[in-house]
Amino acid sequence: MPTHTPVRYVLTSHVEEHGGRPAAATHAEIFEQVALADSFGFDALWLAEHHFGAQAGMVSQPLLVALAAATRTRRINVGTSLIVLPLHHPLMLAEQLSTLNLLTEGRLSIGFGSGSAPFEFAGFDAPFDGERRHPRFREALEVIERAWTGEPFSHEGTNFQIGEVRLVPRPTRPLREFAWLGAMSEQTAAMAGEFGYGLQLPRGQSADHYAAPIGAFRAALRDTWGPDAPERLAIARCVYVGTDDETAIAEAGPSIRRFYEHSKGYDKTKPTPAAPELIERLHFIVGGPEKCAREIAAFVAATGISHLSIQPIWEGLEHGQAIASLRRFGAEVMPRAEALIGAERAAGVAGQD
Amino acid sequence: MPIPSPTVITAATLDLRGRPVFVRSTGTTDGPALILLHGLPTSSWLWRRCLPDLAEALPGWRIIAPDLPGYGRSAPRPGAGPRHLGGWLHALLTTLGVDRFALVGHDLGGLVALTDAVARTGRLGGTPHPARTGGPQLERLLLLNTTIYPAPLLVLGLLPSIVPPFADLSLVWLGRGGAARDDDRRKGYVVGMRQLLAPGTVVEAVEWAEYARPYGPIAGWREARRSLRALAWQAPFVLRCLAHLGDLTLPTRLIWSRHDPFFPLAVAERLRRAIPGAEPMIHIIEGAAHFPQEDQPAEVARLIAEFLREPR
Fold first, then answer.
1. Count of other CB atoms within 10 angstroms of residue A213
2. B282 to chain A: nearest residue by CA?
3. pLDDT digits 0-9 by tens, B99-122
4. Does A226 contact B270 at a Cβ distance shorter than 8 Å?
5. Sheet strands (E) in chain A
C-alpha cells in the first residue's frame, strides 16, 4: 500500500426526507452540499438508490441526480453508493453509465450493490432470495464488463440472453478505473478484488468488524491484479462537526436518538440511551474539530482505507446544521486529520526500518 | 442461396531451410494473413476449435497456425527461443508468400509475437530485423494469456518441474522403461494438461491423443525442457524487448482469461499500460483458464475477428 497517499473523502448522501418538505427542497440541498465538498477537494459524491421511500430515501434515480450534480460542480466525481444492480437491466445500465461518463467528461465514481430491501425487489419483479440474487448480480456485472469493451457481443447466460449487440456510446476507459462494489460478505468483497474494483463498506461497525471483508478483498485484488494494483477501499461514517465537543453533542444529539429509534434493531420497550452512548454504539464521528480529526486518523490507521465516506446529514438533522458541520469539516478537520495521518504513517515507516 | 460448406482445414508440412514445419491453415490462399502462435506445451492443434469461426468471420483472410520448432509435428531447431523465433517466423511467412499479417500469440507464442513486434520497430539495436528491408509486414498484434515479465519467465525457465504438465518432468527425464513407457508418459501429460482447463471443458480422448503424440518418447519432453531453458538463457534479449515496449505503436489487443493460473490479469494490465498501441480495454473471457481456445473457442475467435475487421 502506498504509505503517503493522503486519504480521500467522499460525500455520501441518502437525501432523506424530513419534516414533509418538498422533494425539490431536499434535492436542492444536496447540490449545496456537493458544491461545498467540491471546494474542499472531495473525491466524489455518492448517492444511494432507494425506491418507494425505503429508509426515507428521496433518490430513486441517483444517476440523474449525479449528472445534475456534475453540471453544478467542477472537479468532484459523481456517482453512487450503491446502485442496486439486480433492479436494472445490465445493458440499459451500461448505456446510462457510458453516456454519463461522456457527459461528465469522466467524472464518474460508481458503486454497485446486490440490494438489501425485499420490497424494492418485489416492486421491480426481481428475485430477492440469495440463491438467485447473487449469481444474477455476478452475471449482470459480467454483461456490463463485456458490453463495456465496445465490441459487438452476444450473451447466453442463466439470467440474461442477449443477441448480438454493441454498446453505444463506446466507452473510453476501463470500468475498473471508477467502479466499486458495495459489500459486507467476504464473498462479495473478494469479487470486488477479482474485478479490480474498489470496495465500499457500510457505516455503523467498529474497525475490527471490517477486517474479514478487507482481507478477502485484498487477497483477491493481489491474486488477480498483482501486488501493485491500486487499492480503493472506502468505509462510510456519519459525521457531525461542532464548534467544540459539547456543542456538537447538543446539536446533533436529538437527531442521533431519532436515527437510533428508526434503525433496524430498535427495541421500543427499552429507553433510548443518551446521545454520547449512542454515538459510540452506532460509530458516529461527532465532536469538535480536534476530536473528529483524532477519530478519523485512528480509524484510517486501524483499517488502511484509501477513502473515507462522510455522511453529513441524516433524518432529523437540519440542512443548515449539516452545512455548518461540513464547512468545519473542510476547514478544520481535514487539515488536522491529514497531519495526524501523515505523522502516524511516517512513524510507522520509521518503525519498520 | 449457396449451401454453406464445412470449413476446410488444410494440414501441410513445409520444408524450411532443410527442416520440416507443420502448418494448419484455412480461409483463402492469398490476401492478408492471420498467424496463430500456440504456446507451451501444445501445437497448432490448440487452435482447431477456433479455426472454423475465424474462417467464417474473416472472408478473404488466410488463416495460418504453424507448429513452433520442436512442438507438434515440426522438427526441432537448435536454439529455438524467443531470440530466434522471430527470424524463423519471418522465413516461414516469406516462404508462404505472405505480405501483410496480423499476429496472435498465446503463452510462449505471445512472447514470440511480442518480442518479434518489438524487434521489427528497429529500435533494439544490433542486427536489424529482416523485415526492415521488406518481406511480410506485421500490422496488428493480439496477445492472449502471455507474458514478457522476468518473474514468471525465469521461474518457468529454471524450475519447469513445478509447473503442470511438467510436474513429472524430472521423473520422465530419467527415461525409465524406454519406449515401453511411452503410453504412461502420454497419460502423465494429459493429467497435467487437464488441470489447466476450466471446469466443464471437455476434450475427447482422440483430441488428447494429438496433443500428447510428441510426449511419449523422451525426445518430446527433452524438446519442451530445452524450450523452457531457452527462456532463461535468452533473458537478456527478452529484457531488452521489455525495455522497448513503449515503441510498440501498432494496434494491439489484449485478450485474457479471467482465471489464468500462470498469467493473471495483472500481467495484462501491465502490458496495457506499457504498450502505447494497446486498446484501452482488456478483453476478459469469463469461464476460461490457461487455454481459452479450449474453454471458450467461439469467444476467442470472435474477439480476434472483431479486431481485424475494425477500420483503423
1. 21
2. A149
3. 999 999 999 999 999 999 999 999
4. yes
5. 8-13, 44-47, 77-84, 108-113, 153-156, 161-165, 179-182, 198-201, 233-241, 285-287, 307-311
Q: Give the CA count within 13 Å in the CB-facing half-sphere of A237.
A: 26
CA distance B84 to B221: 20
* B50 part of a folded domain: yes
CB-based contact A226 B281, cutoff 8 Å: no
Chain A CB contacts of B284 below 8 Å: 145-146
Cα of A106 to nearest chain B Cα, Å:
14
**Torsion, CA B249, CA B250, CA B254, CA B255, rounded to 10:** 180
pLDDT per residue as tens digits for the range B37-79: 999 889 999 999 999 999 999 999 999 999 999 999 999 988 7
Question: Tell me, what's the ipTM?
Answer: 0.84
Q: Which residues pair with B21 in a beta bridge?
A: B14
Domain carrying residue B271? 10-148+235-309
Instruction: Please tell me if residue B306 touches chain A, with a CB cutoff of 8 Å.
Output: yes
DSSP code at position A179: E
Instruction: Please give the tally of structural domains in chain B.
Output: 1
Residue B255 domain-assigned (yes or no): yes
Rounded Cα distance, A264 and A246, in Å: 28
Residue B98 lies in a domain: yes
Distance from CA of A139 to the nearest CA of B (A): 10
Among the partner-chain residues B264, B267, B306, the one whose CB lies closest to the CB of A151 is B306
In angstroms, the separation between the Cα of residue A256 and the nearest Cα of chain B is 44
DSSP structure string for B85-135: HHHHHHHHHHHTT--EEEEEEETHHHHHHHHHHHHHTT-S-SSPPGGGGSS
Question: Which candidate in A144, A149, A170 is best for mutational testing of the B interface (most B CBs within 10 A)?
Answer: A149
**Looking at beta carbons, which residues of chain B come within 8 Å of A150?**
281
CB contact under 8 A, A171 and B258: no
Check CB contact under 8 Å for A229 and B269.
yes
Binned at pLDDT 50, 70 and 90, residue B7 comes out as confident
Chain B environment of A101 (Cβ under 8 Å): none
The CATH superfamily of A8-352 is Luciferase-like domain (3.20.20.30)
Contacts of B81 by beta carbon, 8 Å cutoff, 6+ apart? B227, B230, B231, B233, B234, B237
Report DSSP state, residue A329. Answer: I
- B269: nearest CB among A151, A153, A225: A225
- Taking all residues of chain B, what is their mean pLDDT, rounded to a whole number? 90
Q: Indicate whether B183 belongs to any domain.
A: no
CA dist B52 → A315, B91, B289 (Å): 62, 26, 22
pLDDT averaged over 10-residue windows placed end to end, chain A, 353 residues? 75 78 86 97 96 82 97 97 95 98 97 93 92 94 96 93 96 95 95 97 95 97 93 97 97 94 84 94 97 97 97 91 97 97 82 56
CATH code of the domain in which B62 resides: 3.40.50.1820
A226–B264 CB contact, under 8 Å: yes
